[in-house]
Amino acid sequence: MYFGTPVVLITTLNPDATVNISPMSSAWALGDRVVLGCTASGQGIENLRRERECVLNFPSPKLWRNVERIARATGKHDVPPEKAAIGYEFVADKFALAQLAPTPSETVEPPRIAECPLQFEAELVEARPSNGADGRTAFFIAETRVKRVHAHRDVVVEGTNHIDPARWEPLLYVFRHYFGTGTDLGKTFKAEC
Ligand SMILES: Cc1cc2nc3c(=O)[nH]c(=O)nc-3n(C[C@H](O)[C@H](O)[C@H](O)COP(=O)(O)O)c2cc1C
Predict the structure, then answer these.
(1) Which helix (H) or strand (E) is 64 found in, with range?
(2) Distance in angstroms (rounded) separating the CA atoms of residues 15 and 27
């Protein structure tokens, strides 16, 4: 049911203080909250539940190949069998594999991803377990609270703290294909610029 949601690269700290990057597409925002849907077997959700902080990095469409480079990687040393069966491998340095660069955060420990035009530093509010058909925890619905937003200058309306929607383009995940967005169709009455 991947009807089309933005790709977010979640940076979290591993137990040994190295950094993990987890690509996700089950993400939506309301006010200062971003809610994520994470399969329980990922290293990212394990890190988020332990450290209770992360950075939500939003790539632009031109970064789709960088995202895909780490699509079959997990930060889990012991690759879960269902993932190993479809070619996932343990990767310690996903920044190197993705050809992306870390940059320090201001309010959380995990670094941001420099190339992503939008980066939200966030803390975990709650991770609600959700059971699969076998009764075991299959997913976590993780509610995060955004503490600080960073945006590349070229997607900000000069002299304001508004994102220019004509220049910011999310990378969308649509039924397992990557898409950008089209041209601006018009704005809602609440738009501030
Ligand atoms: C574009 C894309 C979108 C994805 N969306 C999700 C998602 O919404 N939720 C999820 O649990 N996994 C999602 N995945 C799969 C995770 O990235 C995968 O489980 C990966 O192993 C997570 O890395 P980690 O184990 O190091 O945390 C997605 C993968 C890609 C490439």
Answers:
(1) helix 64-69
(2) 24
CATH number of 5-179: 2.30.110.10
The CB of 75 under 6 Å from ligand 1? The reply is yes
Distances (CA, A) of 54 to 68, 122, 145: 21, 5, 10
How many angstroms does the Cα of residue 41 sit away from the middle of ligand 1? 10
Q: How far apart are CA 150 and CA 128, in angstroms?
A: 27
CA of 31 to the centre of ligand 1 (A): 24
Q: Give the whole-angstrom CA distance, residue 137 versus residue 52.
A: 19
How far is Cα 69 from Cα 96, in angstroms, rounded to an integer?
A: 10
Q: What is the pTM (predicted TM-score) of this model?
A: 0.97
> Which residue's C-alpha comes closest to atom 14 of ligand 1?
24
DSSP designation for 150: E
Q: Per-domain residue ranges for the chain?
A: 5-179
Q: What pLDDT, in 10s, does the model give residues 45-93?
A: 999 999 999 999 999 999 999 999 999 999 999 999 999 999 999 999 9
